[in-house]
Amino acid sequence: MERIGFVGLGTMGASMAANLARAGAPLTVWNRTPGHAAALLGLGAQEAETPARLAARSDVVVVCVSDTADVAAVLFGPGGVAEGAPTGSLVIDCSTIAPQATREFGCRLAERGVAMVDAPVSGGSEGARLGSLTIFVGGSDSDVARARPVLEAIGRTITHMGPLGNGQAAKAVNQVIISGAYLGVAEGIVLGIRAGLEPHRLVEALSGGAAQSWILANRGGRMIDDEYPLGFKLALHRKDLGIALEMAAEIGVMLPVAMLVAALEDRLLAAGHGEEDMSVLARAIRELAAPEPGADTTGETAPE
Questions:
Q1: 278 secondary structure, DSSP code
Q2: β-bridge mates for residue 275, sequence order
Q3: What pLDDT score does 301 carry?
Q4: How far apart are CA 265 and CA 112, in angstroms?
C-alpha cells in the first residue's frame, strides 16, 4: 500500500485511520486538536506538525473533517495539504460536503498536479470501528482505482458513482433517506409506548416484518430509554441535510419529509442536543406528544 496521510482524528477519522494502520499502511496523521493521535502512534503511525508536512511524506492523503470550511482550511489554508503535496499525489476526501465545493477543490488541486476523489462514508461510529463503512465515491476511473485499496481498508461497500462530486451527491441522498427512517422509527416507538405496549417486545415483533431496519435494530433501544450516546451527531446530520436541501432546491425537487426533519433537528439544536446521537429525534416526538395522564405539567409533583 502507498504511504498514507490521514487528516482528522475525530469520532470517525480515528477509527478509520486505525484500520489503515492495522492493514499495514505506512501512516502519518494530523489532527487540529492535539492529543488525539496516541492510540495511532501505538499502532506504528507517525504524527506530522501540519497538513503540509503530512502531505509531503504521503502518496495519498485522506481527509475526514466536519464541513466544507474545514476541508478548505486543511487543503488550502496556511500549512495546508496543497502546500506540501507532491505532484502526482492523491487526495481522498471522506468528509461530507457540498458536491459543487468538491468539484471546485478538485480543480484547484489539479492545477498543482494533485488528483482528488470524493469518498463520503455512511455507517456511523460502529461502521468506522469495524471497517464496514459504506462509501460513495466520485472521481475518474484511474483515480478511483488508485484509491480503492485505501477505501477497502476502511469500508465494505464501495461504489463508484461517477465523476468528482457524485460521491457527495449520493451521500446527500443517503442523508435524506435516513432522516425519514429515523423519524419513522421515533414516531412508531413513541406511539407504541404511549399506547401501553411493551417497547422491547414491540421492537422484536417489528423486526420480523417489513418495518425491520438498521435504525430500528440499532437505535430503537436508545429511543426507548430516551438516552442518546454518540453514534452520529445530530449537529452533523443537520449540516448534511442542509447540503441535501440546498441541492434539491437547485434542481427543483421538493423534499417534505427532509424539511420536517430539519425543522425538528433545529428545535433540538436550540435545546442543546446537537452533540447527541441523531436518534434524539425521538425526544422531539416525545415533547410534541400530549402529556401522559397524571403527568406533572407545572413542575409540582402530581397527587397520588
A1: G
A2: none
A3: 40
A4: 40
Residue environment code for 140-164, b if the CB has 16+ CB neighbours within 10 A, otherwise e: beebbebbbebbebbbeebebbeeb
Q: Give the pLDDT of residue 290.
A: 87
| Cβ atoms within 10 Å, residue 39 | 14
| Residue for grid cell 492495522 | 22
What φ, ψ does residue 216 adopt, rounded to 5°?
A: -60, -45
- Provide the 10 A C-beta neighbour count for residue 46: 15
Residue 220 near residue 226, CB atoms below 8 Å: no
The x, y and z cell numbers of residue 144, run together, are 478511483
Residue 239 annotated as catalytic: no
The DSSP result for 204-238, as a single string, is HHHTTSTT--HHHHHHHHHHHHT---SSSBHHHHH
* Cα(29)–Cα(16) distance, integer angstroms: 11
Is the Cβ–Cβ distance between 80 and 114 less than 8 Å?
Answer: no
Distance CA 269, CA 6 (A): 30
Domain boundaries in the chain?
4-163, 169-288
Longest Cα separation, the chain: 75
The domain 169-288 is classified under which CATH number: 3.30.429.10, 3.40.50.300, 3.30.1490.20, 1.10.1040.10?
Answer: 1.10.1040.10
**Is the pTM higher than 0.70?**
yes
Q: Is 218:126 a contact under the CB 8 Å cutoff?
A: yes
Q: Which CATH architecture has domain 4-163?
A: 3-Layer(aba) Sandwich (3.40)
Cα(236)–Cα(219) distance, integer angstroms: 17
Q: Catalytic residue, from 53, 103, 160, 171: name it.
A: 171
| Nearest alpha carbon to residue 284 among 261, 300, 304 | 261
Residue ranges for the chain with pLDDT beneath 50: 299-304
**E-assigned strand segments in the chain:** 4-7, 27-30, 46-47, 60-63, 90-93, 115-118, 121-122, 133-138, 155-162
Domains 4-163 and 169-288 share a fold: no
